[in-house]
Design brief:
Radius of gyration: 30 Å
Number of helices: 2
Helix content: 40-55%
Strand content: 15-25%
Number of domains: 1
Number of strands: 3
Distance between the termini: 95 Å
Bound molecules: zinc ion
Order of helices and strands: HHEEE
Length: 104
């Protein structure tokens, strides 16, 4: 081993410690990014199914099915008529609370 002052050795160890800390911080950051990427992939995969549901709306066997519930969840839920006001029929979904006005 070549001779060197202990301060040089200490500095070398300090530098390695700094790099290890950066590495650990990056590892944590990488883990979070991967988790978010997995979430995004799952959401996008679900959007493809959601998008395809427009082709089967309205579903058969359900009167006045809520468009939002059907498109987003694939669940046909009947929208209930609300007291008509000014010749406008209102329908409301009791699940997602969507309201639709149907003009007479
Ligand atoms: Zn709904």
């Amino acid at each position: 081993m070549p001779t060197i002052s202990k301060e040089f050795i200490q500095e070398a160890h300090g530098t390695v410690d700094d790099v290890r800390q950066q590495d650990q911080a990056l590892e944590q950051e990488e883990k979070k990014v991967r988790e978010r990427l997995n979430e995004i992939e799952e959401m996008r995969s679900n959007f493809a199914k959601v998008n395809a549901r427009i082709n089967s709306y309205p579903p058969s066997g359900c009167e006045d099915p809520c468009p939002r519930c059907f498109i987003i969840e694939g669940v046909p839920r009947k929208m209930k008529p609300v007291t008509p006001e000014n010749k406008i029929d209102m329908f409301r979904c009791s699940h997602c609370e969507l309201e639709i006005e149907v003009k007479a």
